[in-house]
Structures are given as structure tokens and as C-alpha cells.
Amino acid sequence: MSGLSRPRRLSWIASAFLAWGLHFFVVYSLQGLVCGRGWSPASAWWGMGALTVAAFATVAWIGLRARRVVAAAGDDAGRRFTARLVAMLCVLALVAMGFTVLPALLLHPCE
């Protein structure tokens, strides 16, 4: 069995999609604030770009950590499986973030 406790392992597995969910919430909240408060769309795009870069970096860091765990797992099949699962979920979360931010960046707000 893996060296991680079950709650910690579950948190690690969910971490990439937690980052995606937070990114989704903040990007579309910012989009709503731009429309509701009359903020400048250019500043919103810069903010969304910065948030997206930070979210991508966070998920990439989680994925790189998972790759290091796979390499160091040795004979622990449970730990190796969990790390590979986390790495695959990181790739999926990065794709989801791309689909989340694409409409917000390409379309004009409030139309």
C-alpha cells in the first residue's frame, strides 16, 4: 500500500481539478465583475491571463511532482499507480483550463 494516508492521497489526486475549479470560478467571476461594474476589458484580459499562467504553473508543478514520485516509487505499485493517475489528471486539467479560458479571452465581455 502507498506511504500516503487515504485523505492525503485523495487530496493529491483531486489537487489538479481543485486548481481548475478555482481557475474556472475566478475567471468567470472576473468576467462578471467587468460587465457589472464597467471595468476595463483590457485589465480583465490581463488579469485572466495572469491567473491562467499561475493556474497552469500550479498544475504543471503538481504533474512534475507526480513524475518524480513515479520515478522514486520503486516496487510500491499503489504509490506508482496514484502518481501516474495524478499525472494524467494534470494533463486533463490543463486541457480543461484551456477550454475554460479560451472563450473568455476571445469573446468580448458583456455581449
From TrEMBL:
It comes from the Bacteria. The chain crosses the membrane at residues 12-31, 43-64, 85-106. This is Uncharacterized protein. It comes from Luteimonas wenzhouensis. Keywords: Membrane, Transmembrane, Transmembrane helix. The keyword Transmembrane helix applies. The lineage of its organism: Bacteria, Pseudomonadati, Pseudomonadota, Gammaproteobacteria, Lysobacterales.
